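User: quick one, sequence for these tokens?
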């Protein structure tokens, strides 16, 4: 299930931490309404610009609190302009954070993204069905410990889904996927 927060309801140009804090309250209410595994889309359509302090307050603080206060919920931003994307990327990077952007129907990461994390995320996105750590380690040519570290990091940032399944040997096994 997806819920949607339309930023343009608050104006075409969004400035200040105070405004972002008010909108963050609305966003947190939406996160409270959804179930684990569900998504809130932050839609920036028709928003011409928001400043760094707005992006830091709304996106940064929400992402920092997401794993503890809203576990297994996902945030996606859509319809960023050139200016809003630049300010969001800078705000997230300065905080060492990353989130999912849906652009032209494709999922990508925005913020501070390590190339190994991007490679892993993109590989999961391109998979037709949920994949295991073993599938990914073979596909990317790395050892299982390194793969598990990448997957733990991505799932900890609420960028990928981690579901429990059963292996062919009857043991518990995690399967990873992203939003569709």
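Assistant:
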């Amino acid at each position: 299930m997806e819920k949607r927060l339309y930023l343009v309801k608050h104006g075409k140009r969004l400035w200040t931490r105070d405004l972002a804090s008010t909108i963050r309250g609305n966003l947190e209410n939406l996160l409270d309404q959804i179930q684990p595994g569900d998504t809130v889309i932050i839609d920036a359509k028709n928003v011409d610009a928001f400043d760094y302090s707005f992006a830091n307050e709304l996106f940064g603080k929400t992402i920092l609190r997401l794993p503890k206060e809203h576990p297994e919920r996902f945030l996606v931003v859509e319809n960023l302009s050139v200016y809003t994307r630049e300010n969001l990327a800078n705000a997230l990077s300065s905080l060492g954070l990353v989130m999912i952007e849906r652009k032209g129907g494709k999922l990508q990461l925005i913020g501070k993204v390590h190339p190994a994390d991007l490679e892993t995320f993109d590989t999961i996105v391109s998979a037709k069905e949920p994949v295991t750590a073993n599938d990914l380690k073979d596909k990317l040519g790395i050892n299982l410990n390194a793969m598990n570290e990448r997957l733990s990091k991505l799932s900890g940032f609420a960028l990928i889904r981690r579901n429990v399944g059963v292996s062919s040997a009857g043991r518990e096994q995690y399967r990873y996927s992203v939003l569709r």
